[in-house]
Amino acid sequence: MVYTEEYRLEYHKEGFMLEREEHKSRSDAAMASRSKSKIPVLLYRYTGPPRNIGFTFSRYDLNMDAGGNAPGEMLFIYEGDFEYLKPAVSRVFPLSDPFTGEEMTSLDPCWENPIPKSQWESILTELEQQPVTDSGLQDFLNQFISWARNHLRTADGIEITGNQ
């Protein structure tokens, strides 16, 4: 399980679920209703400060208005934990940016990397077939795969945005 201030991210056999945290008191509930929603964080081994280098994953639709995604629909993974996903992601490059047509030669840790649904299928298949002996890593991978598959049902792709 991964906890954020207002959301609980759980992996169930039916898939990846993002559920609102229950508040124990009226004052907690009032404070939560005033605070902004946060992007859920998927953790494996990261133990550093809460605001650090990493990657935000968000769905995209090619004909979507510029409204963007709600924070609760996104997913953040710290750089150290992303290292377990990076080889599979890096193998799909070079790609053409579906919005601009420009060639993306490799994953850019400082910018947006829109990856089409067709490429995500190969990334997720590789992650599923990866031999893993660590149960914590397997849970991390399962949660990520489930989150991605859930969003790809109705999206044209998933964009990875680095903050380095």
What would you call the structural class? alpha+beta
Strand proportion: 15-25%
Overall 3D geometry?
A: globular
Whole-number radius of gyration? 16 Å
Q: Count of helices?
A: 5
Unreliable parts: 1-36
DSSP strand count: 9
Order the strands across the largest sheet as they lie in space: 5-4-9-8
Largest β-sheet summary: 4 strands, antiparallel
Description:
By secondary structure, this protein is of the alpha+beta class. 30% of the residues lie in helices and 24% in strands. The chain has 5 helices and 9 strands; from the N terminus they run E-E-E-H-E-E-H-H-E-E-E-H-H-E. The chain has helices at residues 26-34, 79-82, 86-90, 117-129, 135-152; strands at 2-3, 7-12, 15-20, 54-60, 75-78, 95-96, 103-104, 112-116, 157-162. The strands form 3 sheets. Strands 5-4-9-8 form a 4-stranded antiparallel beta sheet. A hairpin with a 2-residue loop joins strand 2 and strand 3 (15-20). Helix 4 packs antiparallel against helix 5 (135-152). It is globular and about 40 Å long. The relative contact order is 0.19. Residues 1-36 have low confidence and may be disordered.
